[in-house]
Design goal:
Elements (H helix, E strand, L loop, with lengths): L3 E5 L8 H11 L6 E5 L1 H10 L4 H10 L12 H4 L6 H11 L11 E7 L4 E5 L4 H8 L9 E3 L2 E5 L18 E5 L13 H23 L4 E3 L14 H14 L1 H12 L1
Parallel strand pairs: 1-2, 1-7, 2-3, 7-8
Antiparallel strand pairs: 3-4, 3-6, 5-6
Helix pairs in contact: 1-3, 1-8, 2-6, 5-6
Length: 262
């Protein structure tokens, strides 16, 4: 039987689509042997690898409030971020659990970006919550994770789709789920909008390079239109589009699995 790896990419709020994709696969009896995640993909991937069902994840999503993760820093310019990230860390731990990579039900890796060395850091051992926190620490918004001389921020900064992790897995089939999609229409805005546009454009460019450089058998791209990665809204829509994309690609996935099993 073919061994399957899901690669779940970065995308902020758009990453809720990953949950819908997982639900579609579960309903059709397709389960991964390995998962790689980045940013929101690391959150979803860690939860699923630890045995949490997609519907359980959506219960958490639907009850989530900004106050659950937002704790403003009194001196953001001195503290490297707008938020202290204590609430974020606590929320991640409450959802993922206090678990080590070695104890997960599905082998899992996630990535973060070390802005000291300029390298992509892959996590596959130790505390899962700490790794996911680093992988999803949006620069300037959430406090970076400082560890062993590294300053770790959102993995999407360097690698929006963590296809580099595939080399560590004995996978026959690699299915990448890209929730960033194409670069949406440019809209005028203030300083924050300008900075986020630069981030989006950089992610789009990096993702295109990755898709040409790393192995994958199928790229699944939920149609999320111009949904913002940075606003906690339209989350049910994101889930539904992820589910729809999974179902639309089901026959392709089954065909790839069958072909690789021969």
């Amino acid at each position: 039987m073919s061994k399957i790896c899901y690669v779940l990419g970065a995308g902020g709020a758009r990453g809720i689509s990953h949950i819908g994709f997982l639900q579609a696969m579960e309903e059709n009896g397709i389960k991964p042997d390995f998962i790689a995640g980045c940013s929101m993909g690391s959150v979803v991937g860690a939860c699923y690898s630890n045995g949490m069902k997609p519907k359980e994840m959506m219960e958490v999503v639907n009850s989530l409030k900004m106050s659950d993760i937002a704790d403003a820093s009194l001196f953001p310019f001195n503290k490297k971020s707008l938020l202290r990230s204590v609430k974020l860390r606590n929320k991640l731990e409450s959802v993922i659990g206090k678990v080590k990579f070695e104890d997960l039900k599905i082998p899992f890796e996630c990535i973060a970006a070390d802005i000291v060395s300029g390298k992509v850091i892959t996590f596959n051992s130790g505390d899962v919550t700490e790794a996911v926190h680093a992988s999803s620490a949006i620069p300037g918004v959430f406090k970076p994770v400082e560890k062993d001389g590294m300053v770790l921020v959102d993995g999407g900064t360097f690698m929006p789709l963590p296809l580099n992790c595939v080399k560590d897995f004995d996978a026959d089939v690699v299915i990448a789920v890209d929730v960033l999609g194409d670069l949406h229409e440019y809209r005028e805005g203030g300083l924050l909008a300008h900075i986020l546009r630069v981030v989006d454009a950089n992610n789009y460019y990096l993702k295109k390079r990755q898709l040409h450089s790393y192995r994958h058998d199928l790229l699944v791209t939920p149609d999320l239109g111009d949904m913002s990665p940075y606003k906690v809204e339209k989350l049910t829509f994101a889930y539904e589009q992820g589910y729809k994309a999974g179902m639309q690609n089901l026959k392709k996935i089954e065909k790839i699995i069958e072909k690789k099993s021969k």
